[in-house]
Input
Amino acid sequence: MRLCALILASLAASTLDWSGAAHAASPTAEKRLGHISIVSEGSGSPVVLITGLSTPRAVWDGVAPELVRSHRVIFVQINGFAGDDPGMNLAPGILDGAVADLHAYLTAGKGGPARVEGHALVGVIAVQLGSDDREDAAGLM
Output
């Protein structure tokens, strides 16, 4: 049964159009850092949404409108994913660089600890952000 669900999910994902590289409803300008790019929208307690492998911010379009009503939503895309410029991600250290960039962004914003969601391999970034001595993550999803 699990295998059937995975196959159906894979088939559904393969039919999606990921060509829109930017989040469709983002009123703020994209901020490009060495390993990631960020678009933020809304206000309130922060929620960080990190895209999975090769996907653009648009992957969050289904959940974004509801979250933006009561949160500052920070949409993170790994440089080089979804066809954009890889920036510093042509060299080793992508995950560590992405964690460092996101940590610097959250620290500079002083919005308090954020709820962090990362799916696929990029979930490792969420885990690293919530580990060590950092106080960036109030919770991991």
User: Anything to note?
Assistant: The first helix runs from residue 2 to 14. The first strand starts at residue 31 and ends at 32. DSSP finds four helices and six strands in the chain.
